[in-house]
Amino acid sequence: MKPVIVAEKPSQAKAYGDAFKTVKREGYMEMAPNPIFPEGAFITWGIGHLVELKEPKAYDPKWGKWSLASLPILPVEYQFQVARGKSKQFNIIKKLLKETDTVINACDVDREGSNIFYSIYRQTGVRGKQIKRLWINSLEVDEVREGFRNLRDNKEDLRLYEEARARQISDWLVGMNGSRLYSLLLQERGIHEVFAIGRVQTPTVFLIYQRQKEIEAFKPEKFYEIEGKFKAAKGSYKGKAKLKAKERKKAEELLAAHELTDGKAQGDIKELKTAEKHIPPQPLHSLSSLQAAANRKWKYSPQKVLSAMQKLYEKKLVSYPRTDSRHITSAEFGYLSAQVESYQKLIDAPFPVASKTPKKRFVDNSKVQEHYAIIPTKSLPTARKIEGLPQDERNLYEEVMRTALGMFHRDYRYAETKVVTDVKGLEFHTTGRTELDKGWKSLFPAAKEAKQDPPLPELALHEQVAAAVAIVEGMTTPPKPYTEGQLIAMMKTCGKFAEDVADSEILKEVEGLGTEATRSGIIETIKRHNYIEVKRNIVSVTEKGRMLCQAIEGNLLSSPSMTAKWESYLKKIGKGEGSSEVFLATIGKFIEKLLQDVPEQLRSNGMPDEMPALQGAEIAICPRCRKGSIVSRRGSYGCTEHANGCKQSFPAVFLKKRLTAKHIEYLCTRGKTPVIKGFVSKNGKKFNASLELEEGKLKMKF
User: Which of 207, 220, 471, 500 has its Cα between 20 and 30 A from that of 187?
Assistant: First the structure.
């Protein structure tokens, strides 16, 4: 019987087919007999997730309707189904699997790849087949053949599947219950929006919200320093005294103590030390470091980087991109060092090779687990192929190539000079830098250098200099908002934000929120849900995101630590040290507690019983034209058919009382509201009344 190879997607299957002689069929390829597969083989593919969890209503009709009374949604057993529109490909795989005795999982070598394979395999109902695992880091022909020659057993893969399945179900449970709970409770307060809740996405939004609150609450403060401007025989330089005072008076007192109130004096160069400093080449790229670099250099979003890197991987130009490693093994170093000159020629970056000896900074077998750092493959493309790449792919390929070539380059060298200038007993400190050898930095000509110390003129120890001393005023600056590239680093290193030491350690252990493969997708999800927006690469929380964060404040859903503890246990499942049953039972208890605590938490968080509608939120069908919808706008409510002539509108504030979305809904659907408290008359008196809609205008009814 011919073995059946299951790839994750068509492009991956094509790369496997390229390594052998194959004939294309509908939904699969037939491989001719060869030394690795003497009888030949079939290569078929998924289309991402062919199999998904069933909707809540499939378990119980009452879960089909959104209502607080029907929560929690906690099925006894979890059921899966073939995703809509994908049954044709699923049935092709099912038929092939039934007719073989050996199945090879050739999906991506990570948790999700294992999940995609086993969810398809189990859904087919096929049992008792021998399952092998392809484990490779490159789609090059030689690597593919070598991988199929040395297939692994599926023990580790089964554990990864167990971990991925537990993660998938837990995300489903948190999403289904949390989204309904918060959306329904906020709807009671007049917010007609769906608030999607996610195990990882919700604490991510909250961290961005916290930074935004810090910026908004920041009050700039003046500070005072003492600066000296010095004129030496061969040039001028500046220095600062070691003082940063909130009050000008302290700076004035220090100057008076040294008899420097007039600002003019003679200075003596008391200390003059120069040391040579070295900066070694930067480490090789993981996905997150590459996403951060590309966002800094070209403002690419993390998702754009992942998508472009996936294409480069499928073109066999780079190694597996979804890696968190920044090291390679001696095997990869061997082929890179053998081809240094060819790589240099390819990107026109000639330099004399400093060393071909592997350094621990880059090459460490013990630090490479499933995947190594992102590096160029052995395959040398033609210059024409590189020129033909889309600009984003070309930029990223060159970034990976230049970073790999850095291993063979010289250190960046500079001289750092530290000067202490004594003016009547008050010491002024100056640091200067002179570049000696650009070294590996010459590989990155477009790199924007950080602000550096200016070079100093030639100075001599105990040289006498003319000094002009003055008090300078500065202002403290607020924290900076995140760029989209910094979000990846923030998610990865969010352990430093945890107040609890144990929580901080867990976050460090699991590398923060999400994984290398999922972080960019999480950012795209919270953008899609309109929780954050990105303008000119700066990230800010939207009105909807702010409302979500106010609702979850103080709850475990706002805590990265909770997500980290869950991720930590998921990793135990992947290692065979934990149980998915125990994990999902914990998630169930967490959901029960949410249902119990959240209604009261909304009140204690200061969420009002009635809230203004979110801008752009649809409230009801327009009572005048019956075509458009009434939506919230800045300062009013109006019809979406306004451009086509419908003039129906409502004020957001009427007689000093803010009208909520619920009030507008009553007016549109019933023609009047219940009694509203707190209107203010022209003479300043408060009164209560209901509102009625007559011929599109508001009338009061007492």
Answer: 207
DSSP assignment of 358-427: --TTTB-GGG-SS---B-B-S----HHHHHTS-HHHHHHHHHHHHHHHGGGSPPEEEEEEEEEEEETTEE
**What pLDDT score was predicted for residue 643?**
87
Average pLDDT for the chain: 91
Q: Residue 502 — very low, low, confident or very high, per pLDDT cuts 50/70/90?
A: confident
Per-residue confidence (pLDDT) for residue 121, from 0 to 100: 96
Least confident of 283-287, 450-454, 481-485, 574-578: 450-454
Nearest to 478 by CA among 208, 220, 206, 212: 220
Reduced to 3 states (helix: H, G, I; strand: E, B; else coil), residue 49 is: coil
C-alpha distance from residue 558 to each of 414, 481, 532, 563, 607 (Å): 45, 19, 15, 9, 16
Cα four-point dihedral sign 498, 500, 505, 509:
negative
d(CA 686, CA 656): 10
Q: Are 372 and 111 in contact (CB under 8 A)?
A: no
Strand order in the sheet with 697-701: 676-680, 686-694, 697-701
> Token digits for 66?
């959104």
**What residues contact residue 565 under an 8 Å CB cut-off, 6+ apart?**
503, 506
Q: Which residue has the tokens 């380059």?
A: 409
Run of H or E residues at 692: strand 686-694
CB 636 within 8 A of CB 652: yes
C-beta separation of 102 from 38 below 8 A: no
CA distance 263 to 470: 6
- Reported as a single tens digit per residue, the pLDDT across 508-523 is 776 778 888 889 999 9
